[in-house]
UniProtKB/TrEMBL annotation:
Protein species of origin: Hoeflea phototrophica (strain DSM 17068 / NCIMB 14078 / DFL-43)
Domain Thioredoxin-like fold, first and last residues per copy: 49-133
Key word Repeat present: no
CDD domains: SoxW
Signal peptide stretch: 1-21
Entry keyword annotation includes Signal: yes
UniProt keyword list: Signal
Protein name in the entry: Thioredoxin-related protein
Amino acid sequence: MIRRVFLVLAAFATLTFQAWSAEVGEDGLHKQDWFALTFRDVAEDIETAREEGKRLVMIFEQRGCIYCAQMHEKLLADPEVADFIKSRFKVVQYNMFGDEEVTDLDGEVLTEKTAARKWGYVFTPTLMFLPEEAPEGMTAAEAAVATMPGAFGKWTFLNMFKWVDEKGYEGEEHFQKYHARIINELRAAGRLESE
């Protein structure tokens, strides 16, 4: 009887884990069904996002990245985080060591891995937030309005998306000050469990 109960609990735990964990693709990267599949032409992706009333964010990941897995299984599995991002951003995933073709804003055709090198990205996950319109004569990295290298807690992660959505990069309030203000507001409202 104890063994049967254990097997039922183990099966339930497995199903529960599968229900909230992100799918892993053949490339070894975790996938969200709401990530956009594009031809990775950065200017075109910026324009498509703008037409949809969204902003483009590119996420660099790599196979076996524990921080990428945490981002998918904790942050992007959180409805508050995922719903905000899905409603305001078009997300395109890049494999830091991938061979898929990428067209930079300056017109140069690269692979995902040569784009990562050209743009100076060495950590995964790295999120690159692009402007509302594609500028001419710049690389994607030069045009980025913000970059988030590495994995962070829920509020740092979500607040970066909110800061970009509110165009905080155009104002005087640096992201760190914005983030501290939001954290204080969450504490005052009794909503902050942990950062």
